[in-house]
Structure formats: structure tokens, C-alpha cells
């Protein structure tokens, strides 16, 4: 079995890709990295290929034909990581909203058996979000309250996308059934982990808005999340999840 791999989905992250990869490989704890790029027009994947010369034993790239959303990019990455025998599988953004230095804290919760899923959480100790406009903070915070209310999960940060999974958790989920692509994807993964009765922990992190490149957030992603949560709950009630 191999140890940990950090999956980073990318779409037009040319300004971040090299520094985020270097940041992970310069950590004291060694993790492998899998970039899942959707054929970014800005050439993100060419930069990854160039860096593979330097990090030949730990940097991997999967390229998809077109932009197909964060959820399916992760599902693709999860399957790859399971096939390649990794024990600990991470989700992390490319834009430094998630600090790579926190990876080890998430890893430790999973590695010591405290968690099957460890979440880097913005809202365990107040609101640890830096530089986001107030409306985005409020939306994100109330989204978590809404998810708690509908699903009954006691999670403070339901849309968080900074996660470590033990492989059993991903093996237990039927990944082909995951349909959501945006924030709803993050909620769905937590809900399925919760239903499968794995332990979930929240590790406090500070989330910082990106300083380089552009957010791919859209109204469609917000709508998907609002209706997606209700759909998840209804499907669970009718045992169709
Ligand atoms: N492969 C892939 N990555 C994506 C897609 N949409 C967003 N990402 C990546 O997912 C991460 C989070 O996206 P971001 O736009 O920062 O979302 P925000 O933090 O909610 O504003 C970044 O690394 C993006 O490059 C997509 O459609 N495909
Ligand atoms: Mg971001």
C-alpha cells in the first residue's frame, strides 16, 4: 500500500499550479500529488508535465477532454487513487485557499484512527475566512446551517473541499452514483460518509481567498447545492441513495 496522495482538480490555474505543487513537495511529510486537469486553455497541464521531470516519483497528471466540473474531476481522481493503492486520499484546491501545511493535520486524524474522513473546517472555531466578500462568507455559513437542518449531520462546514479520506471510506461509496459537480458534490460526499457510519472529524483551518486566477463559482453551482441537499434527503428517505 502507498501512503497519501493529494488530488488537485484544475481549470485555468497557470498562475497557481507550479507554486502549489512546490508547496506540497516541500512539506516535511511526503505526499504524492495527482492533478486532474480539464484541458485548461491556459496550458496548466503543460506546466505539470514540465514539473514531472523534477518530481518524477510523486507527481501524476490526468487530463480530461473538457471542463466537466469539480465533482467528476474528483471522482476520476478517487478511482485513480484507489486503483493505485493509496491509503489516504486528499481533496485540495489549487488556489491556496487551503494551506498545504494543514495537510498533515488532516492526515493525522485519519492515520490515528480518529477519523475516516477529516475535514479542514472554517467554522469550528468561529469564522476563519480571510478576504472573502461578506456575502460569500454569509452564504457559505448559512449553507452549512441549512445542510445540518435538512440532513441531521453535525458538521460545521458542509461545503468544505479540504479533506482527507481513508481509502475504505471511498471504497464503500459507489462513486458512479455521485452526480453533483459543485458544492453539492462536497455535501454529498459528507452525507454518504455519514450514512455509511464512518467517523468524521473537523480540523480548524484558516481559509484564504485566492489572490491569483479566477473563481469558477457560478449561480448554477449554488442552485445545484440548494436543491441537491433536498434531493439527497428525499432519496435517503426512499432508500434510493
Ligand atoms: N478539473 C476541474 N477543476 C475545476 C473545475 N472547476 C473548478 N476547478 C478547480 O477546483 C478548485 C476550486 O475552484 P474555485 O474556482 O477556486 O472555486 P471557489 O473556491 O469555490 O471559488 C480549483 O483548483 C479549480 O481550478 C472543473 O470544472 N474541472
Ligand atoms: Mg477557490
Automatic annotation (TrEMBL):
SUPFAM superfamilies, alphabetized: Nucleotide-diphospho-sugar transferases (SSF53448)
GO molecular function, one term: dolichyl-phosphate beta-D-mannosyltransferase activity
Protein name: Dolichol-phosphate mannosyltransferase
GO biological process, one term: glycolipid biosynthetic process
Gene Ontology CC: one annotated term: membrane
Pfam families assigned: Glycos_transf_2
Keyword Chloroplast: no
Domain Glycosyltransferase 2-like, first and last residues per copy: 6-173
Record keywords, A-Z: Glycosyltransferase, Transferase
Keyword set includes Metal-binding: no
Family label: Belongs to the glycosyltransferase 2 family.
Amino acid at each position: 500500500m502507498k501512503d497519501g496522495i493529494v488530488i488537485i482538480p484544475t481549470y485555468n490555474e497557470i498562475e497557481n499550479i507550479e507554486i502549489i505543487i512546490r508547496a506540497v513537495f516541500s512539506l516535511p511529510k511526503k505526499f504524492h500529488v495527482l492533478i486532474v486537469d480539464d484541458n485548461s486553455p491556459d496550458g496548466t497541464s503543460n506546466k505539470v508535465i514540465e514539473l514531472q521531470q523534477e518530481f518524477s516519483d510523486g507527481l501524476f497528471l490526468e487530463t480530461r477532454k473538457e471542463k466537466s466540473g469539480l465533482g467528476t474531476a474528483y471522482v476520476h481522481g478517487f478511482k485513480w487513487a484507489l486503483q493505485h493503492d493509496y491509503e489516504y486520499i486528499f481533496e485540495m484546491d489549487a488556489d491556496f485557499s487551503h494551506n498545504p501545511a494543514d495537510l498533515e493535520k488532516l492526515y493525522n486524524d485519519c492515520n490515528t484512527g480518529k477519523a475516516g474522513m477529516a475535514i479542514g473546517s472554517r467554522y469550528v472555531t468561529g469564522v476563519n475566512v480571510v478576504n472573502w466578500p461578506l456575502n460569500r462568507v454569509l452564504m457559505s455559513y448559512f449553507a452549512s446551517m441549512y445542510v445540518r437542518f435538512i440532513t441531521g449531520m453535525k458538521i460545521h462546514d458542509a461545503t468544505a473541499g479540504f479533506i482527507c479520506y481513508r481509502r475504505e471510506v471511498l471504497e464503500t461509496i459507489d462513486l458512479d452514483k455521485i452526480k453533483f459537480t459543485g458544492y453539492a458534490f462536497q455535501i454529498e460526499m459528507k452525507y454518504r460518509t455519514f450514512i455509511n457510519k464512518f467517523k468524521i472529524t473537523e480540523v480548524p483551518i484558516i481559509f484564504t481567498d485566492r489572490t491569483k486566477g479566477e473563481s469558477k463559482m457560478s449561480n448554477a453551482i449554488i442552485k445545484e447545492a440548494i436543491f441537491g441537499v433536498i434531493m439527497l434527503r428525499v432519496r435517503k428517505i426512499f432508500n434510493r441513495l
